[in-house]
UniProtKB/TrEMBL annotation:
Domain of life: Bacteria
Keywords: ATP-binding, Hydrolase, Nucleotide-binding, Phosphate transport, Transport
Recorded GO MF terms: ATP binding; ATP hydrolysis activity; phosphate transmembrane transporter activity
Residue span, ABC transporter domain: 8-247
Classification via InterPro entries: AAA+_ATPase, ABC_transporter-like_ATP-bd, ABC_transporter-like_CS, P-loop_NTPase, PstB-like
Entry-linked Gene3D superfamilies: P-loop containing nucleotide triphosphate hydrolases
GO biological process: phosphate ion transmembrane transport
Gene Ontology CC terms, in alphabetical order: membrane
Documented EC number(s): 3.6.3.27
Transmembrane segments: none
Protein name per its UniProtKB record: Phosphate ABC transport system, ATP-binding protein
Length: 252
């Protein structure tokens, strides 16, 4: 059955920085149109794993990958794959909002424009900003600098920027860690709205957040995938003692 196929999959994935192996043979299947949270103590390899999904590790000279990473069943690391194209289909939002020092409008349309987008840029900007739940707050000041926005608004702008590329997957690396509780709640609401259109993989340190917003949770520990399954089960009846110890705050 087509729908059951994972959109992203790792097979015996190892991630190394030089001689240091930080992800140690992970098999993971990420279904489409769900929110998958990746949790685990600091340094367990969450961000490294997230970055392999859109070839961001390519920018780290010492990083190298073994095993397979598949997107719709195709090897993301095949020599014929264009990493730029992959990053359009698999967008990323980072810990700290990182808008360009340009107008709100230019932030949203810049990527599509340099990629030869032929449609109407005004319509594209409005649609992406609406989907990112930012339109009402910025519609009268699209030419203002993005840097004038609050941190939470900047993060939603970064989400709009990713959405404007028409991605299938949005990777989020602790997207709320620099935000206050109110801005965090808005991003969490937004993630709920986006899940019907996109596949979302989110790294978070905040276990309440993982429990609130995700359908599936992967628990990583020292580079191993300890447990992966429906969030409800992971947080109420984990199979593994290490998972239970982590989610009950006994370590990490
Ligand atoms: N560019 C790099 N060069 C060398 N080692 C790195 C690099 N990036 C990460 N590491 C190491 O890889 C391991 C995993 O790091 P990673 O950032 O993936 O973990 P994490 O679980 O996301 O941590 P955190 O929650 O603190 O962000 C750590 O030991 C880290 O020091």
């Amino acid at each position: 059955m087509e729908e059951c196929k994972p959109i992203l999959e790792t097979r015996k994935l190892c991630i190394n920085y030089g001689d240091l192996r930080v992800v140690k043979g992970i098999d993971l299947q990420i279904p489409s149109h769900q929110v998958t949270a990746v949790i685990g103590p600091s340094g367990c390899g969450k961000s490294s794993m997230l970055r392999v999904f859109n070839r961001m590790n390519d920018f780290i000279p010492t990083a190298w990958v073994e095993g397979e990473v598949l997107f719709h069943g195709e090897d993301l690391y095949d020599k014929t794959v264009d990493p730029g194209l992959i990053r359009q289909k698999i967008g990323m939002v980072f810990q700290r909002p990182n808008p360009f020092p340009k107008s709100i409008f230019k932030n949203v349309v810049w990527g599509p424009k340099i990629n030869g987008y032929k449609g109407n840029l005004n319509d594209l900007a409005e649609e992406a900003l609406r989907k990112a739940a930012l339109w009402n707050e910025v519609k009268d000041r699209l030419r203002d600098s993005a840097l004038k926005l609050s941190g939470g608004q900047q993060q939603r702008l970064c989400i709009a920027r990713a959405i404007a590329m028409n991605p299938e997957v949005i990777l989020m690396d602790e997207p709320c860690s620099a935000l206050d509780p109110r801005a965090t709640a808005r991003i969490e609401d937004l993630i709920q709205e986006l899940r019907s259109r996109y596949t979302i993989v989110i790294v978070t340190h905040n276990m309440q957040q993982a429990a609130r917003i995700s359908d599936l949770t992967a628990f990583l520990y020292e580079g191993d995938l300890v447990e992966f399954g429906p969030t409800k089960r992971i947080f109420t009846q984990p199979d593994q003692k290490r998972t239970e110890d982590y989610i009950t705050g006994r370590f990490g």
